[in-house]
Amino acid sequence: MEGVREGELRERLLRPILRELKDGARDQVVVGGLENLIQNLAKPFPRLQSLFQGYGGKTPEERKEILLEAIRFLKDGLTAPPPRAQAASLPSPSRRLTPQDPAHLLVPPQSRKKLAELSLHTVRDLLHYYPRRYEDRRTLPGVRFLEDGQKATLSVKVLSKELVKTPKKGMQLVQVRAQDAWGFRITLVWFNQTWVLSQIQEGETLIVTGRVQKRNGVQLYVEHFENEGTESLSTGRIVPIYPAKEGIGQAFLRRTVHRALETALPLPDPLEPYREEHRLLPYSEALRQIHFPEDEEALKKALLRLKFDEYVLLELKALLDAGGLVLGRSFKVEETWTETFKKTLPFPLTRAQERVMAEIAQDMQSPRQMARLLQGDVGSGKTVVAAYALYLAALNGAQGALMAPTEILAKQHYQNLTRYLFPLGVRVELLLGSMTPKEREGAIERLLSGEAQVAVGTHALIQEGVGFKDLGLAVVDEEHRFGVLQRRALLKLAKVPPDVLVMSATPIPRSLALTLYGDLEVSILDEMPPGRKPVKTKVLPHRLRLQAYAFAREEVRKGHQVFVVAPAIEESEELDLKAATALYEELKGLLPEVRMALLHGRMPAREKDSVMEAFRKGEFDLLVSTTVVEVGVDIPRASLIIVENAERFGLAQLHQLRGRVGRGGLEGYAILIAGEASQKTLKRLKVLEESGDGFYIAEMDLKLRGPGELRGTRQSGYPELKLGDLSQDTEVIEQARALAKRILEMDPDLSLPQHQALKEELRAQAERIGFREVI
Ligand code: ADP
Ligand code: MG
Question: Domain Helicase ATP-binding, which positions (predicted)?
Fold first, then answer.
């Protein structure tokens, strides 16, 4: 009995310790510190308690030692037979291991460090340590068939080796005499790599890749070689090439991964119940094939299968993080309401608006909580769509709230919503931090009584004292500016989970939207209201930049206004400010007659708002700013935007920036100054000269720069995918997401027996897949 409980305790203690090791020994996985936990829980193990003394004060290196020691201690207790049982059964390498077991059980003690260096801590880590690429070594050519100058990979046996000095340049050559399976001779040559000599034994077989030279016999100038070793993992097949570090050989990795596969497989398939319908390779088979593929076809299927898993896990995690699929309220929607709404608008809706409105109406009718992201370029007409949703809520006797990131945007929304909704008998209230207590109390009063149906505001909406009679719909504008907590606070003002509509003006590719906002349905307004002309865009090399300001002078002379965006310097607002100030001073000298102001990220929000307000009123002509300017603000007389060091921005972000001009019927211009004018940079920026479609631009950005570099969206929110490729996988992601939803609908907390393997993977991979919470 005692033994059982002790075993359980060991396992319980192992979990946080393994997690801590994986986390880089930062002592952040346990609230209150790991030492605390050990002192409290590990009473039966004084050895462990003393090991962890002062843990919090140690360096990560020291901590890792402690952790490894602790893991060894705890594991030994688990695998060693209980005292009275047969003492002979030592853990042998052929013992079956689970994915949670430490990876070092698979290698000799002197190789443990190598695994740690590659962060391969558990058997599962090894199983998912996917090859970086593959080499087809199914048929290696014989020496006889080699041609001069050809690049080739061969399998040869070492006959002799020597170090040779070239007479002329004094180079050191390693020369190895070798022969192929048919007895044909070849000389392998390494230049100035004397260390190779010690790595090669006479009589062993090498796999060598290099350039063929036919002169005085056949020679190969070796670029890459491997000691084949005893197993045939490195030849006669499609061979995996793993990401590695210096001193860690491919043969070692192949051997170790192979052992992991042998001892851990077969594993239960996390998607067993859904395998057939999605035509997925069985899980264990996919793992085997991705490491040691039989042929290209099998490799392709394995990739697809494991990629699918990756996305399903990602979507599950996003949904679960967001609290799962929540039951909300079910609104009634009548056709005549929609007709009435349309009739009171001063313009016909775009097809995209109609489509998105239908999607929203459907969500609102469903008993499940609406969680929808509405994406659309600046000016695509998102506010009208939001007004429609708010109108539907109002007709159901519920209230709505729209939260905007700044006062100026809140005011703009207030004006627009009032314009759309007042004729329909819906009363809109504005709530701002800058209001007098009396104004504020009046507004709150009307919201509490239900006399007003809609509240528009900044985070003043979620401050003490604000309440609703019955909040049924929350709309959040420019979502990425709000913290998760603020959004939650808004939702808390409702008695039943309200429907949620998030609006974002940052166009991002659908694949990215589906993964970044895994818990949100995505609607896209991909059509501009008629009459809005695209902003004429020109990329200018740095040496011609003064032309941009000559043009600015012309525009100002016509009574138009100009934005100038100073180069953003990553990670430092202070440097940003410096650069913006320098530019501001320069422009004052250059354009003395132009009235200017400066706006930067360091200013308090209120000051920013008042600068923008003054600009809107035309109190000055040119605004120099860092990228902090609110994208949604309407400056009707702004016709030109100049962006310095445009190459530092993502295309999507630049597109969003240029959306600020030409909004009031004026012709809009954007001049992008390329500080660094490589062909690649210019080509990228020229996408903006040619296209006005935010989504196309975002796709191109993703293709040209890769997701890690996309800016203007949420930098740190990118899922770390091992196999997935967001620039290609939209379809796979859609399927994975649909499946994730179905699974949670059936089994909200993954407690059904058929989902246990999935749950286990989710738990294990949650730490691996970086993902930021939304809503
Ligand atoms: P967004 O919030 O997407 O930036 P808005 O909803 O503020 O866009 O709309 C931008 C402008 O276009 C507003 O002045 C709005 O009245 C107008 N607008 C919206 N939809 C249409 C439409 N279908 N036809 C004409 N004008 C429209
Ligand atoms: Mg807007």
Answer: 363-525
- Name the residue at shortest CA distance from atom 24 of ligand 1: 529
pLDDT of residue 126: 94
Residue 449 pLDDT: 95
Please tell me the distance between residue 347's alpha carbon and the centre of ligand 1 in angstroms.
Answer: 9
Note whether residue 82 is domain-resident: no
For the Cβ of 381 lying below 6 angstroms from any atom of ligand 1, the answer is yes
Instruction: Give the strands of the sheet with 638-643, arranged side by side.
Output: 536-541, 669-674, 638-643, 561-565, 622-625, 596-599
Answer yes or no: do 648 and 580 share one domain.
yes
- Which residues are 133's β-sheet partners? 241
In this structure, what CATH number is given to the domain that contains residue 501? 3.40.50.300
Q: In terms of domains, do 546 and 680 share one? A: yes
Residue 253 domain-assigned? no
Whether residues 149 and 202 fall in one domain: yes
Query: Does the beta carbon of 378 sit less than 6 angstroms from any atom of ligand 1?
Result: yes
> What is the 410 CA–ligand 2 centroid distance (Å)?
10
Atom of ligand 1 nearest to the CA of 378: 4
Tokens 């379809």 correspond to what residue?
A: 731
Residue type at 690 in one-letter notation: E
For residue 58, how far is its CA from the centre of ligand 2 (angstroms)?
Answer: 51
DSSP letter, residue 272: G
Spatial CB neighbours of 500, under 8 Å, sequence gap ≥ 6 = 369, 370, 371, 372, 473, 474, 475, 476, 491, 775
Q: In what order do the strands lie in the sheet with 428-431?
A: 428-431, 454-457, 399-403, 471-477, 499-504, 371-376, 521-525
Number of H helices, E strands in the chain: 25, 20
519 and 601 belong to one structural domain:
no
pLDDT value of residue 711: 37
Ligand 1 site, residue 384, Cβ cutoff 6 A: yes
- Residues 747-758 have pLDDT tens digits of 888 889 999 999
Average pLDDT, the chain: 84
Q: Are residues 567 and 687 in the same domain?
A: yes
CB neighbours of residue 547 within 10 Å: 13
Cα 477 to averaged position of ligand 2 atoms, centre (Å): 8
Q: What whole-number distance in Å separates Cα of residue 750 and Cα of residue 760?
A: 10
Domain identity same for 517 and 412: yes
Ligand located closest to 382 CA: 1
> Is residue 349 within 6 Å of ligand 1 at its C-beta?
yes
* 600 & 670 share domain: yes
DSSP 711: -
Phi, psi at residue 235, to the nearest 5°?
-150, 165
Nearest ligand, CA 656:
1
- Report yes or no: 525 and 385 within 8 Å, Cβ to Cβ: yes
Tell me, what amino acid is at 453?
Q
Indicate if 566 and 665 belong to the same structural domain. Answer: yes
pLDDT at 438 (0 to 100): 93
Domain that holds residue 512: 335-525
| Ligand 1 within 6 A of CB of 145 | no
**Atom in ligand 1 nearest the alpha carbon of residue 353:** 23
Instruction: Tell me the CB-side half-sphere exposure of residue 566, using CA atoms within 13 A.
Output: 28
Q: What is the pLDDT of residue 772?
A: 31
What's residue 3's pLDDT?
A: 47
Q: Which residues of the chain have pLDDT under 70?
A: 1-5, 31, 76-95, 228-232, 322-325, 479-485, 516, 518, 568-574, 576, 628-632, 705-721, 765-775
Domain presence at residue 637: yes
Tell how far the Cα of 345 is from the centroid of ligand 2, in angstroms. 17
